[in-house]
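Forum: Protein Structure Q&A
Topic: Joint prediction for protein chains with partners

I've read a bunch of threads here and the consensus seems to be that you should model interacting components together rather than docking separate models afterwards. I'd like to see that in practice. Below is the full input, 226 residues plus whatever partners are listed. Could one of the regulars post the assembled result?
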Amino acid sequence: EDQVTQSPEALRLQEGESSSLNCSYTVSGLRGLFWYRQDPGKGPEFLFTLYSAGEEKEKERLKATLTKKESFLHITAPKPEDSATYLCALLAKTSGSRLTFGEGTQLTVNP
Amino acid sequence: GAVVSQHPSRVICKSGTSVKIECRSLDFQATTMFWYRQFPKQSLMLMATSNEGSKATYEQGVEKDKFLINHASLTLSTLTVTSAHPEDSSFYICSATGTGWYEQYFGPGTRLTVT
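Posted by a regular:
Agreed with the consensus. Here's the joint model:
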């Protein structure tokens, strides 16, 4: 069974304090791993797609990496506006278009 | 990026009435659309998947007669909650993907409150 586990559940950082969010997964065959950002009361916003181990993607202060067992979302020098819930999801080769989501990491960046 | 809209953003209805939520892809053709439900502090729960012109595929435990989904065009899908009850109150989010895409792009969500 495809599974996604995100850690930690919640993370508090001071502005400028870099850290990483973890997404561990098990899947029979990975088609893609996705990171989304969700603000309270809004739909998820697409951030990155990673397709194979070793791949990295960057956008502003965010960098996503992928291994065969986990993905990391690295946040460098975060700002208060980076506060949100970050969701990891995977698409298995055997699941059609159905995403499997993790429970998310709620990030709070204090000024 | 691909843009998906939802309407309305918030709706309050009385128990026993029906409510329709629209999901539109604004700048791409959505070959597949998805409807999710999200409870407070929980992740997204997939309710159903629909392809344009086809019947929706519902997830186990989702009542297809209660949550009617229509995907009539490549840019529009609707979710109708029939005979709504307070337990149907939730945050409903749609997403869409285009031909050859793997990513899903999400709408802003609809907060449904049934009184």
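Chain A touches chain B through 21 residues (CB under 8 Å).
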